[in-house]
Amino acid sequence: MLSVGQSYSLPFAERGGPSFRAVRRFLFRCFGRLHEGTFAAVNSVLRRLDPPPEFILFPGDEIIGLTADPEALRAQWRHWLDQEMAWLDREATPIWHTTGNHTTYDEMSEQVFREVLQLPENGPPEQEGLSYWVRHGDLLLVFVHTLSTGLGGEGHVETEWLEATLKAHTDVRHKIVLGHHPVFPVNGFSGAYQREIGPEYAGKFWNILVEADVLAYVCSHILAFDVQVHRGVLQLCTAGAGTAHRMPEGVEYLHCIQAALDAEGFRYQVLDTEGVVREQLQWPFKSAENWRNLPHGSHAAAFTGSKGPNNIVELRIAGLMAEKAHAPAQTLFSAFDHQIIAPLWLGLRGPRQTLTLILGRQPGRSPHYWFGPDLHPGQPFDIDIALHAGMGPGGMLYRIHGDDRWSSFHGASATGLEQMIWPGQWSVGHGQGGPADRPFMGSAIAVQIGYES
């Protein structure tokens, strides 16, 4: 915890030779005391970063906006630029913006956005100064307009220009795309066109990112910090620079992000208004070095207790599905204590035999569910699972063995494995109640577990 005005260095900022360091701080603050004060608290942390960032990324909603009066909108922007951000030397530290639902909600506000920010005009027709790209050394930043009035407004986004831009820069080692709206729901908050981009765009949009080997899609809009990954591309949602009163208490918090990208990969740490590191991640993560085979049936766990907020436990599960689909739950792996519902259960559920992970958080409280792919009758499977406590609810990961691209299970929880207490018993092939409890109906099940000692 750091006092105001104290200078400090952050761990990975001290390493040499990064391709970039960036700070990302987001969502809206208005022309009044409430949001302006909370934004100032985040700015205080940002201003004390040592070394300072090479540039700043801001994915939308700098002001409250949403006015029909263009002069009132310009006045809000002048206040934000000339007073709230007056400390920033934008020549020394560029700041790059995306559009947002508080700043570009109609044609008038789009025009004001262009006027006041004067961003590059290399975007698609009629989106100049709204969508654009910036090349920073060996890094390409592409900013998309997820509220294009020319396409229909909020939740509508252009994809052809995005695809062409990424293809035109195939020589760039690192690519990041930024927009205001998430593509995948965050913390269970879902709603096409209002909370994420429309379904007619989402699939194609993400395919473009995957095919172009994009590192991450950075967004905001939902008042949370959230990271998840889909087919190897991170979705990083960060919207916590001003609107504290609408954040879920005890779960989300005001924050900024310091990030670095270099030969070691992508690293970030999330800082609250006291400068305390609340979350951090290195991507791609390093696989476990210690692996062991787990026998079929129940046995004592190889480890117990809390393994820390950034711990990673990996599983490799292979087997042969039964010839006919079996709708009742089938256990692949379970970690349990006989006195309570299993803190962790991984198996198949429903007529489509959907890979499902269930966390039993507290006695007497309903468990939380995450859903992966469906497994098909009569087919062999070989799946890697990673349980990454440092990624929050997005840290339940899977991939087909041999594919290096991870994907997050789909869930609706705001927390993940951060406070997981591993119990003393494990089982393979059936639940905690013994061989008749939710047995796996296929054959040749084999489970390996990897973890740090």
Features:
single chain; 453 residues; alpha+beta; Purple Acid Phosphatase, chain A, domain 2; Jelly Rolls; 2 domains; seven-stranded antiparallel β-sheet; 29 strands; 14% helix
Give the arrangement of secondary structure elements:
Blueprint: E1 8-9, E2 20-24, H1 33-47, E3 49-50, E4 55-58, H2 70-84, E5 95-97, H3 107-117, E6 132-136, E7 139-143, H4 160-168, E8 174-178, H5 199-211, E9 216-219, E10 225-230, E11 233-238, E12 256-262, E13 265-271, E14 277-283, E15 290-294, E16 297-300, E17 305-306, E18 312-320, E19 330-336, E20 344-349, E21 354-359, E22 368-374, E23 380-388, E24 396-400, E25 407-408, E26 410-411, E27 421-422, E28 425-428, E29 443-451
Parallel strand pairs: 1-3, 2-4, 4-5, 7-8, 8-9, 9-11
Antiparallel strand pairs: 2-12, 6-7, 10-11, 12-13, 13-14, 15-29, 16-28, 17-27, 18-23, 18-29, 19-20, 19-28, 20-21, 21-22, 22-26, 23-24, 24-25
Helix pairs in contact: 2-3
Task: Provide structural commentary.
The protein has helices spanning 33-47, 70-84, 107-117, 160-168, 199-211; strands at residues 8-9, 20-24, 49-50, 55-58, 95-97, 132-136, 139-143, 174-178, 216-219, 225-230, 233-238, 256-262, 265-271, 277-283, 290-294, 297-300, 305-306, 312-320, 330-336, 344-349, 354-359, 368-374, 380-388, 396-400, 407-408, 410-411, 421-422, 425-428, 443-451. With 453 residues, the protein is α+β, with helices and mostly antiparallel strands. The chain has two domains: 8-283, Metallo-dependent phosphatases (Purple Acid Phosphatase, chain A, domain 2, 4-Layer Sandwich), CATH 3.60.21.10; 290-451, Jelly Rolls. The strands form six sheets. A seven-stranded antiparallel β-sheet has the order 16-28-19-20-21-22-26, with no helix packed on it. Strands 5-4-2-12-13-14 form a six-stranded mixed β-sheet, with helices on one face. Helix 2 (70-84) runs parallel beside helix 3. It is elongated and about 70 Å long.
